[in-house]
Amino acid sequence: MFVSTTVVVICFTVFIQGTTIKPLVKFLHVKTQGDKLNTMTDIVINHARDDIMAGIEAIAGIHRQYFWRHRLNHFDREYLQPFLTSKMHSRGEELIEKYDRAKVKENKRRMLESALDSHH
What we know:
Blueprint: H1 2-27, H2 40-60, H3 65-84, H4 91-119
Helix pairs in contact: 2-3
C-alpha cells in the first residue's frame, strides 16, 4: 500500500503538475527571469571553480561531483568530440583562422594597390 501510494504521488507530481505549470504561469502572467547570457568572465570563473574543486577532491582523495564532472569532460573532449565531429575546432582556432583569412585578404589588396600605383 505504501509503495503504490508513493508511486501515485510521484506520478501526479511529475506528470500532472509538471505539464500544467507552464500554462498556469503564462495564464497568471507571472514575471519570470529571462534567459541570462553568460559573460566570458562568468564562464572563466565557473571553469576555474570546477577545476579547483576537482583538484581539492583529488588531493583529499574523495570522488564527488567535481571529480566525475572532470572525468566526463575529459572523456568528452578526448573521445566523443573527435569521434562525433568531422573536424574539431575551438572558438579560439576559429577566430585565428578568420583573422588569417582577413590578413591574407588585406595583403592581397595592398599588393594590388601598390602594383597599380607603380604602373601609373
